[in-house]
Amino acid sequence: MLIADSLIKVNLKTMCGIVAYIGQREAYPVILKGLKRLEYRGYDSAGVALLNNGLKVYRKKGKVAELEESLMGVDLHAHIGIGHTRWATHGEPSDRNAHPHQSNNGKLAMIHNGIIENYAQLKNELQKKGYEFKSDTDTEVLLNFIEDIQMNNHCGLEEAVRIALKRITGAYVIVLIDQDNPDTLIAARKGSPLVIGVGKGEHFLASDASPIIEYTKEVVYVNDYELAILRPDELILKNLGNEKITPFVQKLDLELAAIEKGGYEHFMLKEIFEQSDTIYDCLRGRLDAIAGKITMSGVEKYIEQLKNANRILIVACGTSWHAGLVAEYIIEELCRIPVEVEYASEFRYRNPIVHKGDVIIAISQSGETADTLVAIEKAKEQGAIIFGILNVVGSSIARTSHAGAYTHAGHEIGVASTKAFTAQLVVLTMVALKLAHDKGTIDQLRYMHLINELHEIPDKVSTILRSSEKIRLIAEKYKDARDFLYLGRGYNFPIALEGALKLKEISYIHAEGYPAAEMKHGPIALVDENLPVIFVATKDAYHEKIISNMQEIKARKGIVIAVISEGDDVITQMADDVMIVPDADEIVAPMLSVIPLQLLSYYIGLAKGLDVDKPRNLAKSVTVE
Ligand code: AGP
């Protein structure tokens, strides 16, 4: 539980994107392009270090483009280099806190993603030895600690790094270059993601595969406590005990086009418009609507444990947590298994009661969210079975899970999760349907009906996307509102929460999601002629109830905007504006009703001139707690 324990005492610092290159190409353009691809991970400062007749380090507060701008006309020729884009949580964004950091003797440069917990004590020891620090980062402390070991032990960089890593606590990916060894890159990982791209006479390192895919599909995912020594023609992996490990080279199933904008103005819009295809990809090879069969090897492997579970715990964060909430309704309805949905950040510290054999479903797009990772590591130690619903292949949570299912939504670059969310709903619905059918808690008629409902979703999504212009006009109308309220009942309640989260993330407008009936217990006090109230009101068992909730808002001059099923004339009459989705069974309707809300938040953010792909203060995967 080392990682978990160290994170508990953590004072957070950074969460970032790292890129490195060694080979025959010009290193700088490879690194710069890679940093731009990783910028969704963090974007408050950036830097590169290059080795060419000495070490050259360049850093700049702000986005990667500002670093690029500041280096116009500089001789950046080099075949080895490291680069970093930062997301600060501790230690303000500034040139001096930006990475790479340089050691006191000026010979070593290092980039780092993670947290060195015991850095203050190390810093004290080093200051007593006369070391000076130019930044207030833990990274610079670790770097000088490595230099000090090198000097005192008269050893090479690799050994100094190994010794140092045995003395620190925390999470890290570090990559170093050394002026005295211009043909070697040293990297190590514990708790943060690291991928190595294997090329002919060259190697690439990055936080994920997106900076690598353009050059090679051969990758090695570095595991915790592993150290990599890279030369143009050599890749050596070792553990901290200095024992060699055979690298496991995997082939990436990612296409370059998947990480380009494809003619869309923003990745978020592209990813919203990809959902008909990504949901189809998610169903493909799993759902056979004619035979009425669902094939999911991960479920089959653990079918007995899953269907006989006393309860299912779902652990996740953010949008993934909302998918978990929808799954709670579906699994309890179809499988009659009690489900509890847990915020991973609370679950990991609450000392929860986990019994041997309990089933934990971990939902995560990135597969790297620290709270979710540590929460399932804790539960796994107590004998729980971890079933991962993940989008990024080979991610840390995927490797920690006993089994699971990938959502196949493709690379999601927009910080606001959209296509991964609908794919999560599709996978969770297929898992529930398969379990229910196996348990016999659903009859064949209903089973086949829901199979067909799932089968029809990709086309219904295309229909919704064709009405995007109408949604843009609604966004234009309400973009200046100060607050929004999102209301839903039953399966649509979590969609109200998700709609509110999307609007907050993208437009910085305050928005709250609530179960519609909960309104009378307080939030209705907010209602006046300036408050847009968005109802997720597709046809379901709660339809009459939600109409009366709308009347309560109208009675207080509130603005009613509703996501409705096609042909719903009653609400069309009542509402100020409607966003229409094709009719569908209430169990699959959340996959449809969320899409107008994704578009609404996108168009409001766009109308306000905001950076919808990289909203302020956010990052795509939260790799520290
Ligand atoms: C959603 O738009 C946000 N990016 C965020 O809430 C996200 O869902 C959360 O950080 C969980 O990420 P994960 O799915 O990668 O674990």
Describe the structure.
The structure is a single chain. By secondary structure, the chain is α/β, with parallel strands linked by helices. Helices cover 37% and strands 23% of the residues. The chain has 21 helices and 27 strands. The strands form five sheets. It has an eight-stranded antiparallel sheet with strand order 3-2-4-1-10-9-11-15, covered by helices on one side. Strand 7 and strand 8 (185-190) form a beta hairpin. Helix 15 packs antiparallel against helix 21 (590-607) and helix 16 runs parallel beside helix 21. The chain is globular. The chain starts with a helix and ends in an 18-residue tail after the last helix. The model is unreliable at 1-14 (pLDDT under 50). 2-deoxy-2-amino glucitol-6-phosphate (AGP) binds at residues 317-320, 364-366, 369, 372, 415-417, 505, 621-622.
SSE topology sketch:
Layout lengths: L1 H7 L8 E6 L4 H12 L6 E7 L3 E7 L2 H7 L9 E7 L14 E2 L5 E9 L2 H10 L9 H16 L3 H11 L2 E9 L6 E6 L4 E4 L4 E4 L11 E4 L4 E6 L2 E6 L4 E2 L3 E3 L15 H7 L1 H9 L3 E2 L4 E2 L2 H5 L1 H5 L4 E5 L1 H18 L3 E5 H4 L11 E6 L5 H12 L3 E6 L5 H5 L2 E4 L12 H21 L4 H22 L2 H11 L4 E6 L4 H15 L2 E6 L16 E6 L5 H12 L4 E7 L3 H6 L2 E5 L8 H18 L18
Parallel strand pairs: 18-19, 18-20, 20-21, 21-22, 23-24, 23-25, 25-26, 26-27
Antiparallel strand pairs: 1-4, 1-10, 2-3, 2-4, 5-6, 6-7, 7-8, 8-12, 9-10, 9-11, 11-15, 12-13, 13-14, 16-17
Bound molecules: 2-deoxy-2-amino glucitol-6-phosphate.
